[in-house]
What we know:
Layout: H1 3-6, E1 9-10, E2 16-20, E3 23-28, E4 31-36, E5 41-46, E6 49-54, H2 59-80, E7 83-90, E8 95-99, E9 102-106, E10 113-116, E11 121-124, E12 130-135, H3 138-150, E13 161-164
Amino acid sequence: MSRIGKRPVELPSGVSASVAGQTIEVKGPKGTRSFTATDDVTIAVADNAVTVTPRGKSKRARQQWGMSRTMVQNLVTGVTDGFKKELEIQGVGYRAQVQGNVLKLALGYSHDVDFEVPAGVTVTTPKNTEVVIEGDDQQLVGQVAANIREWRAPEPYKGKGIRYKGEYIFRKEGKKK
């Protein structure tokens, strides 16, 4: 039995959900999101809650049960609160700024890195060493944060680079004479 899948997803006030076949559509204050489940699970909306149940006892049905329930929960969270990732930039001369739909990063290369921000995500820079990525799609927000971090991942000797806020970087000792 899936401990996650057994629990229904509560719909807060201002959020509505509708099911058409295997597709659930959730509408809320931050927009509309939808998810299409596999044929191994059944999605039902009743009493201001969404329930996901498996169709059978197969291993795949049990796998899809918990995953589908989590996806529905992420839809509800996305249209109510949204998702947010924060990045910190450390290093002398490393900085970021947003110009329109482009994030300009100075990361110690001979040129500035221009990162095109995809639709559905907003990127802001409260300080020139902080980048905040927000959106209603958890997968897209995480992927954009990972793509930005990929330009200069933190190195283990001085810790310079782009890191997630609160991320611990294991430091190595340098050469000895």
